[in-house]
């Protein structure tokens, strides 16, 4: 059974329209704040928040957009073997996963304390979820994101042991694909690492066209 959601209320800001952005332009607007209603409205409209170098809050809708078709996940034999040595949980330590992803030694870190505060509140209200990977009682990897209907907007992942973040992704896909629904697993950008796992990319306009059908589905988590 999916976690009950508590509605935080409407957006406090008028958000930009991603379709008005120039082709190939990922940043579609600047301003606003991390008010929970605004953040959820952003995801529903195909955007996500992330600070820009000026320190202002940016609203991003990458063109092209990276996503993982749930039937396209590539799981190697070695990854299957690695998975046997970890324990995987869901929503046991959301803040721990966020702090793992926010490790200040990581290049291009963007997860600040206000992001941790806002997304932790979304977690408490049932909108944000984490997948944890454990070695004994030690958190060694994981991922987190926002789920609205059949959209899971993956935000970040981390690992402290080899393959731990990949194991988290495999576990998430297993849950999202469990009922055969056409869910949308958004990963923002297609990196070389994510491409090796089956992530592809589509033009922003195509992603935005896919979004309404996913939002109409019931959540999986």
Relevant terms:
seven-stranded mixed sheet; Alpha-Beta Plaits; 7 helices; 2 domains; 221 residues; alpha+beta
Describe the structure.
The strands form two sheets. The chain has a seven-stranded mixed sheet with strand order 5-6-7-8-9-4-10, sandwiched between helices. The model has no long low-confidence stretch (mean pLDDT 95). It has two domains: 18-64, Alpha-Beta Plaits; 66-215, Aminopeptidase (3-Layer(aba) Sandwich). The chain is built from seven helices and ten strands. Helix content is 29%, strand content 25%. A hairpin with a 2-residue loop joins strand 6 (128-135) and strand 7. The protein is of the alpha+beta class and 221 residues long.
